[in-house]
Amino acid sequence: MNYTNNILNLVKEKYPAQLEFHQAVREVVESLVPILNRYNKYQKNAILERLVIPDREIYFRVTWTDDEGKIQVNRACRIEFNAAIGPYKGGLRFHPSVNPGIIKFLGFEQIFKNSLTTLAIGGGKGGSDFDPKGKSEGEIMRFCQAFMNELYRHIGANTDVPAGDIGVGGREIGYLFGQYRKLTNRFDGVLTGKALNWGGSLARTEATGYGCVYFAQEMLKEINETLEGKTCVVSGSGNVAIYTIEKLQQLGAKPVTISDQKGMIYDESGIDLVLLKDIKEVRRASLEEYAKEKKSAKYTSIKDYPQGINPVWHIPCFAAFPSATQNELNVNDAKALLKNGCKCVSEGANMPSTIEAVHEFINAKICYGPGKAANAGGVAVSGLEMAQNASMTPWSFEYTDKKLHQIMENIFSNASETAKEFGVKGNLVAGANIAGFRKVADAMIDQGVL
Ligand code: NDP
What we know:
- The chain has about 450 residues and is of the alpha/beta class.
- It has 2 domains: about 1-190, Leucine Dehydrogenase, chain A, domain 1 (Rossmann fold, 3-Layer(aba) Sandwich); about 205-370, 3-Layer(aba) Sandwich (Rossmann fold), CATH 3.40.50.
- Helix content is about 50%, strand content about 15%.
- It contains 18 helices and 13 strands.
- The strands form 3 sheets. It has a 5-stranded mixed β-sheet with strand order 1-2-4-3-5. Strands 7-6-11-12-13 form a 5-stranded parallel β-sheet, with helices on both faces.
- About 50% of the residues are buried.
- The structure holds NADPH dihydro-nicotinamide-adenine-dinucleotide phosphate.
């Protein structure tokens, strides 16, 4: 379609070096063809042209002092993409790989994901190339404070509400919130993922992982299958991976892999969740320690991965849960999963599968839940945290988890029904993109040319 090609070319021309952003835009606009063909109002109102250029891109320098008294300088940004259906909302990522293309892909995806949750939240994302690895508590705190010294003037409970992502967990949210409060003299719901005794929501920590498994359950119901007794593979070993594993184990499934930036663990007897939490949440150490303490586990260092392969996806399994980072599952990995009989892929990470890998899953007609639908549970409970902050009423774990479950069921049925409506039955990539897009695009049209 000419219109979608033009949009892709526009993005490549305006942002030539932002490859992940090109990838995310391509995946979305290609799947929007059925709705764009049916209704010309979107092209007439230049909706795609407006969606691919953020409302605002804020870039700033973060200057802080390390433990040796040396002045350190990092780059940071907040990309406010679209606020047609609510305040900008999306995480902050601290990782040395962070660049404008990565934050833009994440922010763009966030628009559609947030729309799918049915909550009133727009899309945004931010971060820094700061590497929290190996930093002391004091260095992490000083960096977070310096980061907020600039960010505070751009965010607000009804403007832009950041949360965590890779490298930003409860500890960092605490330091960021403390500095925001100090600078503004306001105690409001300006960040989500807060601790429970100062405005956080029960079930937020678990939400993305649990939600991703709930989404897999919904997909599997369609083929009369369950996760009980099934071998599963999971990548990553951070927030999303840990709570994916917890929910899988509660449902009687057997997750057998985890990975981190240095390597992977294959534990045929099933992942030991207590040990994993201790290594990653308390000690903040590498997975090498897991293999030292659990004899049934085999550790493979990333240096020994065969070229072009992520060995996590080559372990035979019934279901796979990519939960580490973008483009961690390529076409070779997808073929291996399918060859070994994998029936379900539910993405906890954002854009973990390359476009070619996604095509493999869709062509094979397995249950494939793209990240923007399957991992929306995290932002959904962040939205619920905002509701609890606004009403000054905390909810119980059970109530919040039940709401999360309902939201994941709704996201699945919305994506699935929308795919049917537009003649692409079973294609949840198209269903999720079209459903997420339609709500935001119609709101933009209602609100005029801005
Ligand atoms: P964490 O920082 O808690 O964990 C990330 C995990 O992935 C760690 O195990 C980390 O290894 C590993 N990892 C990070 N980068 C790489 C890399 N380049 N190669 C291999 N492994 C890597 O982050 P989250 O669990 O919060 O986020 C994981 C994914 O889920 C991201 O794609 C994020 O955008 C997405 N997501 C997160 C949500 C949330 O609520 N947290 C919501 C929706 C999506 P190591 O331990 O060595 O650092």
